[in-house]
Amino acid sequence: MKGVMPSDIREKMKLLDRAEIIHLGGGLPDPAIFPYEPLSDASARLWADRARAQTALQYAPSEGYLPLREWIAGYMTRQGTACEADNVIITNGSQQGLDFLAKLLLSPGDKALVEIPSFIGALRAFDAYEPQYLGLPEDSADWNPTDLAGAKFCYVGPDFRNPTGTCMSRKDRLALLDLADDTGMAIIEDGCYEQLRYEGEDIASVAALAAERYGSIERSPVLHTGTFSKTIAPSLRVGWIAGPRDVIRRLVLIKQASDLATSALNQMLLLDVVRDHLDTSTRIARSVYRDRCRSMLDAMEEFMPHGVSWTRPQGGLYVWAELPDGIDGAALAARALLERSVSIISGSAFYPANATNIVPKPNTFRLSFSMIPAAAAREGIERLGGLIREG
Ligand SMILES: Cc1ncc(COP(=O)(O)O)c(C=O)c1O
């Protein structure tokens, strides 16, 4: 654990209760849109049925509650990755899935290929297994199998990456499969935001493209992590990994050793809710976040000074901004909090520590619109733009 750094974001959350602060950094799902009534009804149904209640309070199987695994296999199949319950393990959120995959695949000093910048939670999970990081070049024309040989896996978030909000094109997803073919590495596909598209056409997941290419999930190099945290509620801590059975069987051993099982109660409640309400919950989430994304981007257009550039996401929860050279994102984040009561996350947090081929961009920061209504976005971005302009 000597090499594992505290997460800038978890540290910032300690400041959440100062009322005057506008939190443009966070990225939590908005609790106003959690499905309270469906969860309460599912709960009442469960307690009224003694046999189900007994199952809910008992240890669950380590691989997860079978009807939920079957439901997820059906969902993955509808998304283009034909699979069965044996291809799915339930984890405590997809964060635990990332930890387990690193535990399975990495020994100290092994190479891990990651997108640059990358989700901070994944980097912190991988850090504990002491990999040597390699950055996946931004342009797939530079994905040279010789340079990237020896990596145990490549970690990607093709849909609306955290932190940049950008998407991987279909062409690059296919090129990633070519790279996996050439190097023998696994692909960890983080599907956290795949349901949160607000504009544009859906692109098949890397897992789906692999299933099509290889004819079966059993021959696929892709391990896909999914979650209900952004469409239902994060506190239930229910996520999953889908992949070839052999890999899932090994992950079940890791799960047994780690925490035995995910809460049966949470899995049963969640299944009851997703069966009837996932579509509605997802529709509500898309509609609320789409509006917030637009209002934050409008405010950026209005208040960001010349020389600042930013991404225009078609989904997810994040916008990534680049400052003119020489302005440090971490220094800006500290001043924004102190002088303007605006919180942002410095971009440097999203770069792995010991990567050989990565030059971090210190002049970057991440914003999130998930909890920010239009008026607050305008106010927060105006304050931030003013601070950048003052220099
Ligand atoms: C890209 C990404 N992956 C995984 C997670 C973990 O989510 P959970 O453990 O709640 O499924 C998050 C959380 O914000 C995330 O942004």
Radius of gyration: 21 Å
Question: What bound compounds does this protein have?
Answer: pyridoxal-5'-phosphate
CATH architecture of the largest domain: 3-Layer(aba) Sandwich
SSE order: HEHHHEHEHEEHEHEEHHEEHEEEH
Count the strands?
13
Helix content: 40-55%
Query: Major sheet: size, sense and barrel closure?
Result: 7 strands, mixed
- By CATH reckoning, the class of the largest domain would read Alpha Beta
Per CATH, what is the topology of the largest domain?
A: Aspartate Aminotransferase, domain 2
Inertia-based shape = globular
What's the end-to-end separation, in Å? 38 Å
Structural category is alpha/beta
How many helical elements? 12
Keywords: Aminotransferase, Pyridoxal phosphate, Transferase
Organism: Croceicoccus naphthovorans
GO molecular function: pyridoxal phosphate binding; transaminase activity
Domain Aminotransferase class I/classII large: 50-126, 162-384
Overview of this structure, please?
- The protein has twelve helices and 13 strands.
- The longest helix is centred in the last third of the chain and has 40 residues, at 264-303.
- Helix 7 links the parallel strand 5 (151-156) and strand 6.
- The strands form three sheets. The protein has a seven-stranded mixed β-sheet with strand order 2-8-7-6-5-3-4, with helices on both faces.
- The mean pLDDT is 95.
- The protein has two domains: 8-34 and 280-390, Aspartate Aminotransferase, domain 1 (Alpha-Beta Complex), CATH 3.90.1150; 36-277, Aspartate Aminotransferase, domain 2 (3-Layer(aba) Sandwich), CATH 3.40.640.
- Helix 5 runs parallel beside helix 6.
- It is of the alpha/beta class.
- The chain binds pyridoxal-5'-phosphate.
- Pyridoxal-5'-phosphate binds at residues 93-95, 119, 121, 157, 162, 190, 192, 227, 229, 234, 239.
